[in-house]
Amino acid sequence: MHQFIVLMLPPLCLALAALTDFFEMTIPNWISALLILAFLLISPFSDLTLITFGWHLIAAVAVFAACFALFALNVMGGGDAKLLTAVSLWFGFNTSLFEFLVLTGYIGGLLTIAVLLLRANWDMFATVGLRLPQTLMAAKKVPYAIAIGAAGLIAYPSSPLVMAAIQSIR
Questions:
Q1: Are residues 80 and 27 in contact, defined by beta-carbon separation less than 8 angstroms?
Q2: What would the pLDDT profile of 49-103 be if each residue is shown by its tens digit?
Q3: 3-state per-residue secondary structure call for the chain
Q4: CA end-to-end distance (rounded Å), the chain
Q5: What is the CA angle 13-134-78, rounded to 5?
Q6: Among 70, 120, 143, 155, which residue's CB has the most CB atoms within a 10 Å radius?
Q7: Could you tell me if 155 and 99 are in contact, meaning their C-beta atoms sit under 8 angstroms apart?
Q8: Could you read off the pLDDT of 91-146 as tens digits, one per residue?
Q9: Average pLDDT of 9-17?
Q10: Which residues contact 144 (CB under 8 A, 6 or more apart)?
């Protein structure tokens, strides 16, 4: 049962966060809270040693510290910081976390360019019938959970927690 949670919950939460950020320009707090609570509840059943569990916590604390600094500088939104922290808990402090964070940066850069181009050329897109949420077009910010979600969906299968869950199913 815990394998199902490991394999399904983070991707579903990432997809939901991306969708709500796209349509509403906000990430519900319950998504990050659910990710953290679920990790804490399933970790005893996932054959994590105390040291490995500690590394997962260290990953989340390190990402939170960096995100908090970016939030304080008004570079990142609070919902994005909470989501990145919660997802980092599932990756742990390893190369899959690094892959996730780098992909988030690259995809976020491409997303930012795409959103800026859409906003700058909205009149042209509107004449051909393209309809986007008004919150996306009117906001000054970028729905970065789309980048976080896409990067998470790409990198999560290579995380040790997923590898262990797949191995235990076999």
A1: yes
A2: 999 999 999 999 999 999 999 999 999 999 999 999 999 999 999 999 999 999 9
A3: CHHHHHHHHHHHHHHHHHHHHHHHCCCCHHHHHHHHHHHHHHHHHCCCCHHHHHHHHHHHHHHHHHHHHHHHCCCCCHHHHHHHHHHHHHHCCCHHHHHHHHHHHHHHHHHHHHHHHHHHCHHHHHHCCCCCCHHHHHCCCCCCHHHHHHHHHHHHHHCHHHHHHHHHHC
A4: 14
A5: 45
A6: 143
A7: yes
A8: 999 999 999 999 999 999 999 998 888 888 777 766 776 676 776 666 778 899 99
A9: 97
A10: 21, 76, 77, 80, 108, 111
Report the sign of the C-alpha dihedral through residues 152, 113, 69, 28, in that order.
Answer: negative
- Cα–Cα dist 94/83, whole Å: 18
Both tokens of residue 73? 């500088």
Q: Are 99 and 85 in contact (CB under 8 A)?
A: no
Place of tokens 């590394």: 55
